[in-house]
Design brief:
Elements lengths: L1 H13 L42 H13 L2 H7 L1 E4 L5 H7 L3 E4 L13 H16 L11 E4 L17 H7 L2 H17 L4 E2 L23 H16 L14 E7 L13 E2 L3 H17 L4 E4 L3 E2 L2 E2 L4 H11 L5 E3 L17 H6 L4 E2 L4 H13 L5 H17 L23 H14 L1 E5 L11 E5 L6 H5 L22 H11 L3 E5 L10 E7 L18 H12 L4 E6 L7 H5 L3 E4 L8 H7 L71 E4 L2 E2 L4 E5 L3 E6 L7 E6 L5 E6 L7 H5 L3 E8 L8 E5 L7 E5 L1 H5 L7 E6 H6 L9 E7 L3 E11 L11
Parallel strand pairs: 1-2, 1-11, 2-3, 3-4, 4-5, 5-7, 6-8, 7-10, 13-14, 13-15, 15-16, 16-17
Antiparallel strand pairs: 8-9, 12-17, 18-19, 18-29, 20-23, 21-22, 22-29, 23-28, 24-27, 24-29, 25-26, 25-28
Bound molecules: beta-D-glucopyranose (BGC) (2 copies).
Length: 835
């Protein structure tokens, strides 16, 4: 009871003005702070939007007139959105599609990302196709959507802002408004009408791969930011800017409780009561809707076992009837196909539940045909279709599209000087400064005094791509050279400029080595970028043995050490904190790396230009197994609590921390099986049959590979396996691939098969013949093979329970060297099955 009261007071304390945040959910929490589902037959009441009962009769009359002229084919086209990688302008015209999106990997042009010109040209083509009424039909402009989720992150030269987790630490809604206005302007340069932002997730378990897309683990900050973003993007309601030439349509996503799934599983199930759904995960939608957000994206996830895309109570009763949202509900990437009984191409359940626009990237054509038939057959009621189309037309009219011109002729279009303009860069740099959280600063190591010799090291120091995180130029982000960010600045270059300015010198190495003993060392390292389920982890452990060793040896020789930690979430890094005199959580700051130096490096007068002001909007774990760790929960035991963050005025000394991770090694390596010469725990290499012999050889380092020799006429095998199966189903749907490096030292004397699946049971293994693929490369040279997970599934693998992701089988003296066995993201958008 006392605990329940505390929690109740807490929610009252964080609720803002118009909050309808209740406290009743405390009764439904178990000891871990997990919520228990309540009886769904007793639904709660959701708050009503202040805009719900406003009606623009003139606009509705225009929609009536347009609807009356539309054929059923044209109406069905409006409710379908296709991806630009899978739809041509001709298709848009012929099927009267309502919208096109460009997914994270769907840029036009030869590269995985595109320039402003390439985007504008594509925008024109789709637009012209949509208004081509030469077949006698109606002309309805398409809306073109994209994930501009931390700036316009898909265009070369765009301003890439820190991810939302970082902005949450800034606690500054006015800054968020400026960022969103910049993002809208840059979207106008490339001809886009619409962004799939903001994400209003309230992540409860930081093992979720999308934790960084959320602002905070509590709804408080999200509630303040939601209207600021919506207004920054769309303009303030009833002002002259609203949907004006510098504005775009905004969508709040992913409705609802995407951040509330069990174990932080992406696209998983939120087993929570409807109070928790409303008061934690749903409450910021009210703020976004009150600010005029025009679209809401349904979540991939489920609520108490039911996929939200098929949940009529949530999409229709709650969102539209109770809250009174009058824009449209867009689906997520083929998410409708996950509803029980649906496929990507056939899903009347979703529109019947209240979805207004299907996101059907590559499935749009089949979906169009089935949906059309279902309307004709009455499976989908004409009224429901009309309502969905009405909502889409309402938004298009409000956005001014019917009175617009082709994208390239609109204000700002094609003007590259707007991308990362001086003004835009300044906003991003300010955001970087304000989002840094100082967790440790023993003996006042920071700020770095003027005139020092500074060693800067770590792999991410000079990589703008690493510093930008996921959803940057590509879906997963990472791995691109700095030339892909022609207007950006790396963290290294910012540090160099500031240190030189203050009369110091800089030595840079990736591994921490140096020629001249430094006065102080700064290491920049952390999580490599990821997006969506590819970022899901089983524990919050982050380890980096080379950086840890380098920090320790610097400390031993008396050099003070500073860590700048890049990540998409708080992580258990106690050994690295112990080895650092100062530790800064920098999240993923984006393209203005100079913002870090602004705070860390003192100017020549000995004072830094800016102090730290960031405060944690997520609790920092004390142990690696603290997935769900949220302020207000019972037995709350963080290392650094929600709201923590030092400034230069503090002189706290952090004592040495426990280095017990508190997590088992089990499943730490879901995607990495054999690397750096070692099977990655819990995986191990094993052989079966009498003929397989393995020995260590060199690949890129000494003995980081093994050679296997298969002797005799009876098949034998070498495999990588462990007891506990991993579920690779979502990875397969995300087109991920098994990859490994190999070398043949002589021609193959016998066929070779590779299988993936369950150990010792052919019934759940998928075997593919890789003989020809191996032979395609010359002997004596290392090559890389990639095979789509789907190939193994087609060959019979139980992809949901893989405890043997690699098994190589052959006979007769076949010899192959193997290294770097892992599952990685798709490289080319194609299914790679060996021929
Ligand atoms: C993501 C959305 C995104 C959409 C389009 C989905 O996989 O969940 O957040 O807006 O793809 O790229
Ligand atoms: C993402 C897209 C991405 C695609 C790749 C989706 O889940 O949201 O933006 O391009 O997967 O398969």
């Amino acid at each position: 009871m006392i605990e329940a009261r505390k929690k109740c007071l807490y929610f009252i304390a964080i609720a803002t003005a118009s909050a309808l945040v209740g406290c009743s959910d405390t009764d439904n929490q178990d000891a871990k702070g997990h919520s228990q589902p309540t009886d769904q037959s007793t639904h709660v009441t959701w708050p009503r939007s202040t805009l719900a009962d406003l009606r623009n009769d003139a606009l509705e009359a225009k929609i009536d007139a347009l609807l009356a002229r539309m054929t059923v084919e044209e109406k069905v086209g409006q409710v379908i959105q296709a991806d630009s990688a899978s739809v041509t302008p001709e298709d848009v015209k012929n099927y009267n599609l309502g919208s096109v999106l460009s997914g994270g990997n769907s840029a036009p042009g030869p590269l995985p990302y595109a320039t402003a010109d390439e985007w504008v040209e594509a925008a024109d083509q789709y637009y012209q196709a949509s208004i081509d009424a030469s077949d006698g039909g109606v002309a309805i402009p398409i809306i073109w959507g994209i994930d501009a989720v931390h700036g316009h992150n898909n265009v070369v030269g765009g301003t890439v802002f820190p991810h939302n987790i970082a902005l949450g630490a800034a606690h500054n809604a006015e800054l968020i408004r400026k960022i969103s206005a910049v993002t809208a302007r840059e979207l106008r340069v490339t001809g886009h009408d619409w962004t799939f932002a903001p994400t209003l997730a309230v992540p409860q378990d930081d093992r979720w791969g999308r934790t960084y897309e959320g602002f905070s683990e509590t709804p408080e900050i999200t509630r303040q930011y939601a209207p600021a973003i919506v207004e920054g993007l769309q303009g303030e309601l009833a002002s002259a800017q609203f949907m004006g030439p510098e504005k775009v349509i905004s969508s709040a996503k992913h409705f609802v409780a995407d951040g509330g799934t069990r174990d932080g599983q992406d696209q998983g199930d939120a087993a929570v009561s409807e109070e928790v759904l409303r008061d934690i995960h749903g409450v910021a939608y009210l703020d976004a809707i009150n600010a005029g957000v025009q679209a809401v994206m349904a979540s991939f996830s489920s609520w108490n076992g039911k996929k939200i895309h098929g949940d009529q109570h949530l999409l229709t009763e709650v969102l539209k009837n109770q809250i009174g949202f009058d824009g449209f509900v867009v689906g997520d990437w083929n998410a409708h196909g996950q509803i029980e009984g649906c496929t990507n191409e056939n899903c009347p359940q979703a529109i019947n539940a209240g979805l207004d626009m299907y996101m059907a990237p590559d499935s749009w054509k089949g979906l169009y045909e089935n949906t059309l038939q279902q309307v004709k057959d009455g499976v989908i009621k004409q009224d429901r279709l009309d309502d969905a189309v009405r909502r889409i037309l309402r938004v298009k009219m409000r956005a001014g599209l019917f009175s617009s011109v082709k994208p390239s002729a609109r204000p700002l279009a094609g003007d590259e000087s707007i991308l990362s303009s001086g003004e835009h860069k300044a906003v991003a740099r300010e955001a970087v400064r304000q989002s840094l959280v100082l967790l440790k600063n023993n003996s006042g190591v920071l700020p770095i005094a003027p005139g020092q010799h500074v060693l800067v090291f770590g792999e991410s120091t000079d990589s703008i791509s690493d510093a930008s995180g996921g959803w940057t130029l590509t879906w997963q982000g990472g791995g691109l050279p700095n030339t892909a960010f022609p207007k950006g600045e790396s963290i290294l270059s910012g540090l160099e400029a500031a240190i030189h300015e203050a009369g110091g010198t800089v030595e840079y190495s990736t591994d921490g080595s140096f020629a001249q003993k430094p006065d102080v060392a700064i290491a920049v390292y952390g999580e490599k970028p990821y997006a969506e389920f590819q970022g899901d982890v089983s524990t919050l452990l982050y380890a980096n043995p080379p950086v840890l060793d380098a920090l320790k040896s610097l400390k031993q020789s008396g050099v003070p050490t500073v860590s700048v930690f890049l990540s998409g979430r708080p992580m258990w890094v106690n050994p690295l904190i112990n080895a650092s005199d100062a530790f800064v959580a920098a999240w993923w700051p984006g393209t203005e790396g100079g913002g870090i130096a602004d705070v860390l490096i003192a100017t020549s007068d000995g004072e830094p230009a800016h102090d730290f002001s960031g405060k944690l909007s997520f609790s920092w774990p004390k142990r690696a197994d603290q997935g769900p760790l949220n302020v207000g929960q019972d037995n709350y035991d963080p290392l650094f609590p929600y709201g923590y963050g030092l400034t230069y005025a503090d002189d706290d000394t952090l004592p040495d921390l426990s280095e017990e991770a508190g997590a088992t090694n089990k499943q730490l390596n879901k995607y990495s099986y054999f690397e750096h010469g070692r099977a990655q725990a819990p995986w191990r290499v094993s052989t079966s049959g009498s003929g397989a012999h393995i020995s260590a050889v060199d690949y890129t380092a000494q003995e980081d590979a093994f050679t296997v020799l298969f002797e005799g006429e009876m098949a034998s095998s070498v495999s990588i396996e462990n007891e506990t199966p991993v579920d690779l189903f979502r990875e397969m749907n995300g087109a991920m691939e098994l990859t490994f490096a190999y070398r043949l030292d002589a021609e193959l004397p016998a066929p070779v098969t590779l299988s993936l699946g369950c150990a010792n049971n052919p019934a759940c293994q998928g075997a593919v013949d890789i003989t020809k693929a191996l032979e395609a490369t010359s002997t004596g040279e290392w090559s890389t093979m990639r095979i789509s997970l789907s190939c193994f599934a087609q060959a019979g693998a139980d992809i949901r329970a893989v405890n043997q992701p690699f098994k190589l089988e052959s006979t007769s003296g076949t010899t192959i060297a193997i290294a770097a066995v892992k599952v990685v993201e798709d490289s080319d958008g194609q299914d790679n099955c060996p021929q």
